[in-house]
Specification:
The protein is α/β, with parallel strands linked by helices and 243 residues long. Helix content is 39%, strand content 27%.
Amino acid sequence: MRLTEAGRVLDDYATRILALIEEARVALDELKGLHRGRLLLGATPTPGTYLLPALLGRFKQNYPQIEIVLRIRDTRRIQEMLLQHELHLGVIGGKVVLPDIDASVWTGDELVLVVAPGHRFATLGSVRAADLAGQPFILRERGSGNRETVDEALHRAGVYVRPAFELEGAEMVKQAVAANLGISILSRCAVELEVAAGRLRIIPIEGLRIERAIWLLRRRDQRLPRVAQAFVDTLDAPASAAR
Protein backbone atom coordinates (compact mmCIF):
# COMPACT_ATOMS: atom_id res chain seq x y z
CA MET A 1 0.00 0.00 0.00
CA ARG A 2 1.18 3.53 -0.76
CA LEU A 3 -0.08 6.88 0.49
CA THR A 4 -1.82 9.08 -2.03
CA GLU A 5 -0.82 12.73 -2.32
CA ALA A 6 -3.75 13.60 -0.03
CA GLY A 7 -2.52 10.96 2.42
CA ARG A 8 0.99 12.42 2.48
CA VAL A 9 -0.42 15.89 3.17
CA LEU A 10 -2.60 14.52 5.98
CA ASP A 11 0.35 12.58 7.43
CA ASP A 12 2.43 15.76 7.57
CA TYR A 13 -0.33 17.65 9.39
CA ALA A 14 -0.97 14.73 11.74
CA THR A 15 2.72 14.59 12.68
CA ARG A 16 2.75 18.30 13.50
CA ILE A 17 -0.53 18.07 15.44
CA LEU A 18 0.77 15.21 17.58
CA ALA A 19 4.02 17.11 18.19
CA LEU A 20 2.03 20.15 19.34
CA ILE A 21 -0.05 17.98 21.69
CA GLU A 22 3.16 16.62 23.20
CA GLU A 23 4.58 20.15 23.44
CA ALA A 24 1.44 21.30 25.25
CA ARG A 25 1.68 18.39 27.69
CA VAL A 26 5.32 19.22 28.38
CA ALA A 27 4.47 22.89 28.90
CA LEU A 28 1.85 21.97 31.52
CA ASP A 29 4.28 19.58 33.24
CA GLU A 30 6.83 22.39 33.42
CA LEU A 31 4.52 24.37 35.66
CA LYS A 32 5.30 21.77 38.30
CA GLY A 33 9.04 22.39 38.02
CA LEU A 34 11.82 20.17 36.70
CA HIS A 35 10.98 17.22 38.91
CA ARG A 36 10.16 15.01 35.98
CA GLY A 37 10.46 15.05 32.20
CA ARG A 38 12.34 13.60 29.29
CA LEU A 39 15.30 15.07 27.40
CA LEU A 40 15.56 13.86 23.80
CA LEU A 41 19.09 14.51 22.58
CA GLY A 42 20.82 13.47 19.36
CA ALA A 43 24.52 13.63 18.54
CA THR A 44 27.04 12.54 15.96
CA PRO A 45 29.54 9.90 17.19
CA THR A 46 32.46 12.08 18.28
CA PRO A 47 30.62 14.63 20.46
CA GLY A 48 28.14 11.95 21.56
CA THR A 49 30.87 9.59 22.71
CA TYR A 50 33.65 11.85 23.97
CA LEU A 51 32.18 15.26 24.88
CA LEU A 52 28.60 14.82 26.06
CA PRO A 53 28.84 12.03 28.71
CA ALA A 54 30.52 14.24 31.33
CA LEU A 55 27.97 17.00 30.70
CA LEU A 56 25.09 14.56 30.92
CA GLY A 57 26.50 13.43 34.26
CA ARG A 58 26.44 17.03 35.53
CA PHE A 59 22.92 17.50 34.21
CA LYS A 60 21.74 14.29 35.91
CA GLN A 61 23.21 15.43 39.23
CA ASN A 62 21.21 18.64 39.03
CA TYR A 63 18.01 17.00 37.76
CA PRO A 64 18.03 13.35 38.90
CA GLN A 65 14.37 12.75 37.99
CA ILE A 66 14.82 13.69 34.33
CA GLU A 67 15.00 10.80 31.87
CA ILE A 68 17.75 11.26 29.27
CA VAL A 69 17.58 9.69 25.81
CA LEU A 70 20.70 10.09 23.64
CA ARG A 71 20.60 8.94 20.02
CA ILE A 72 23.88 8.59 18.08
CA ARG A 73 23.39 9.10 14.35
CA ASP A 74 25.19 10.71 11.40
CA THR A 75 25.04 14.43 10.68
CA ARG A 76 22.12 14.40 8.26
CA ARG A 77 20.02 11.96 10.29
CA ILE A 78 20.28 14.14 13.41
CA GLN A 79 18.88 17.06 11.43
CA GLU A 80 16.09 14.93 10.00
CA MET A 81 15.12 13.73 13.47
CA LEU A 82 14.95 17.32 14.72
CA LEU A 83 12.62 18.31 11.89
CA GLN A 84 10.50 15.22 12.51
CA HIS A 85 10.04 16.24 16.18
CA GLU A 86 11.98 13.18 17.39
CA LEU A 87 14.62 15.25 19.23
CA HIS A 88 14.71 18.42 21.33
CA LEU A 89 18.35 19.22 20.52
CA GLY A 90 21.18 17.98 18.32
CA VAL A 91 24.96 18.19 18.68
CA ILE A 92 26.97 17.61 15.49
CA GLY A 93 30.48 17.99 14.13
CA GLY A 94 29.44 18.28 10.48
CA LYS A 95 27.65 20.89 8.40
CA VAL A 96 24.02 21.94 8.66
CA VAL A 97 22.49 20.81 5.38
CA LEU A 98 18.72 21.01 5.98
CA PRO A 99 16.53 24.14 6.20
CA ASP A 100 14.59 25.27 9.29
CA ILE A 101 17.48 24.36 11.61
CA ASP A 102 19.00 26.92 13.97
CA ALA A 103 22.67 26.23 14.66
CA SER A 104 25.01 27.85 17.16
CA VAL A 105 28.65 27.00 17.89
CA TRP A 106 28.96 25.11 21.17
CA THR A 107 32.70 24.37 21.18
CA GLY A 108 35.67 23.74 18.92
CA ASP A 109 37.32 20.47 17.93
CA GLU A 110 40.87 19.90 16.67
CA LEU A 111 41.65 16.94 14.42
CA VAL A 112 45.14 15.46 14.66
CA LEU A 113 47.30 12.96 12.79
CA VAL A 114 47.70 9.72 14.77
CA VAL A 115 50.06 6.81 14.12
CA ALA A 116 51.10 3.62 15.87
CA PRO A 117 54.27 3.75 18.02
CA GLY A 118 55.90 1.40 15.49
CA HIS A 119 55.18 3.60 12.47
CA ARG A 120 58.14 5.44 10.95
CA PHE A 121 56.42 8.81 11.59
CA ALA A 122 56.41 8.07 15.34
CA THR A 123 60.08 9.04 15.71
CA LEU A 124 59.64 12.38 13.93
CA GLY A 125 58.84 15.67 15.60
CA SER A 126 56.51 16.59 12.75
CA VAL A 127 55.73 15.76 9.12
CA ARG A 128 54.89 17.83 6.07
CA ALA A 129 51.50 17.60 4.41
CA ALA A 130 53.23 16.22 1.31
CA ASP A 131 54.59 13.32 3.40
CA LEU A 132 51.03 12.03 3.81
CA ALA A 133 50.62 11.27 0.11
CA GLY A 134 51.04 7.57 -0.54
CA GLN A 135 50.51 6.60 3.10
CA PRO A 136 47.77 4.02 3.76
CA PHE A 137 45.00 6.01 5.43
CA ILE A 138 42.29 4.63 7.70
CA LEU A 139 39.31 6.90 7.18
CA ARG A 140 35.95 7.35 8.86
CA GLU A 141 32.83 6.47 6.90
CA ARG A 142 31.45 8.86 4.30
CA GLY A 143 28.75 11.08 5.76
CA SER A 144 30.57 11.58 9.05
CA GLY A 145 31.61 15.09 10.08
CA ASN A 146 35.15 13.82 10.68
CA ARG A 147 35.48 12.46 7.13
CA GLU A 148 34.05 15.64 5.64
CA THR A 149 36.49 17.84 7.57
CA VAL A 150 39.52 15.66 6.79
CA ASP A 151 38.72 15.42 3.08
CA GLU A 152 38.32 19.20 2.79
CA ALA A 153 41.50 19.97 4.76
CA LEU A 154 43.67 17.58 2.76
CA HIS A 155 42.17 18.80 -0.51
CA ARG A 156 43.01 22.42 0.40
CA ALA A 157 46.56 21.31 1.20
CA GLY A 158 46.82 19.61 -2.19
CA VAL A 159 47.18 16.16 -0.64
CA TYR A 160 45.41 13.14 -2.11
CA VAL A 161 45.58 10.10 0.16
CA ARG A 162 45.10 6.42 -0.49
CA PRO A 163 42.38 4.95 1.75
CA ALA A 164 43.37 1.50 3.01
CA PHE A 165 40.20 1.14 5.09
CA GLU A 166 36.92 2.99 5.59
CA LEU A 167 35.58 2.17 9.05
CA GLU A 168 32.52 3.27 11.00
CA GLY A 169 33.30 5.10 14.21
CA ALA A 170 36.47 6.38 15.82
CA GLU A 171 36.88 3.30 18.02
CA MET A 172 37.37 0.98 15.05
CA VAL A 173 39.73 3.47 13.41
CA LYS A 174 41.84 3.74 16.57
CA GLN A 175 42.17 -0.04 16.84
CA ALA A 176 43.31 -0.30 13.23
CA VAL A 177 45.85 2.51 13.62
CA ALA A 178 47.20 0.99 16.86
CA ALA A 179 47.70 -2.28 14.93
CA ASN A 180 49.83 -0.27 12.45
CA LEU A 181 47.50 -0.94 9.53
CA GLY A 182 47.69 2.70 8.51
CA ILE A 183 47.50 6.27 9.79
CA SER A 184 44.49 8.48 10.42
CA ILE A 185 43.29 11.94 11.38
CA LEU A 186 40.88 11.97 14.33
CA SER A 187 39.52 14.36 16.91
CA ARG A 188 42.02 15.04 19.68
CA CYS A 189 39.36 14.34 22.30
CA ALA A 190 38.81 10.87 20.81
CA VAL A 191 42.44 9.76 21.15
CA GLU A 192 43.49 11.25 24.50
CA LEU A 193 43.32 7.96 26.43
CA GLU A 194 45.21 5.98 23.79
CA VAL A 195 47.92 8.63 23.54
CA ALA A 196 48.29 8.71 27.34
CA ALA A 197 48.56 4.91 27.37
CA GLY A 198 51.22 4.94 24.63
CA ARG A 199 49.08 3.03 22.11
CA LEU A 200 48.93 5.98 19.68
CA ARG A 201 51.09 9.01 18.98
CA ILE A 202 50.04 12.44 17.71
CA ILE A 203 52.31 13.84 15.00
CA PRO A 204 51.95 17.55 14.09
CA ILE A 205 51.55 18.40 10.41
CA GLU A 206 53.67 21.41 9.51
CA GLY A 207 51.56 24.36 8.41
CA LEU A 208 48.31 22.44 8.65
CA ARG A 209 46.00 22.77 11.63
CA ILE A 210 42.63 21.07 11.16
CA GLU A 211 39.77 22.47 13.24
CA ARG A 212 36.01 22.41 13.10
CA ALA A 213 33.06 23.67 15.09
CA ILE A 214 30.78 21.48 17.19
CA TRP A 215 27.24 22.78 16.60
CA LEU A 216 24.20 22.84 18.86
CA LEU A 217 21.04 22.44 16.77
CA ARG A 218 17.33 23.03 17.33
CA ARG A 219 14.28 23.44 15.14
CA ARG A 220 13.72 27.02 14.05
CA ASP A 221 10.01 26.97 14.90
CA GLN A 222 10.49 25.18 18.21
CA ARG A 223 9.39 26.33 21.61
CA LEU A 224 12.26 24.80 23.54
CA PRO A 225 10.94 22.71 26.47
CA ARG A 226 12.18 23.74 29.88
CA VAL A 227 14.09 20.48 30.29
CA ALA A 228 15.94 21.17 27.01
CA GLN A 229 16.66 24.76 28.02
CA ALA A 230 18.09 23.48 31.29
CA PHE A 231 20.46 21.26 29.31
CA VAL A 232 21.48 24.21 27.11
CA ASP A 233 22.30 26.11 30.32
CA THR A 234 24.45 23.14 31.41
CA LEU A 235 26.35 23.28 28.10
CA ASP A 236 27.04 26.98 28.62
CA ALA A 237 28.04 26.69 32.29
CA PRO A 238 31.69 26.21 33.33
CA ALA A 239 32.51 22.68 34.47
CA SER A 240 33.13 23.94 38.01
CA ALA A 241 29.84 25.79 38.26
CA ALA A 242 27.38 24.51 40.84
CA ARG A 243 23.66 25.11 40.89
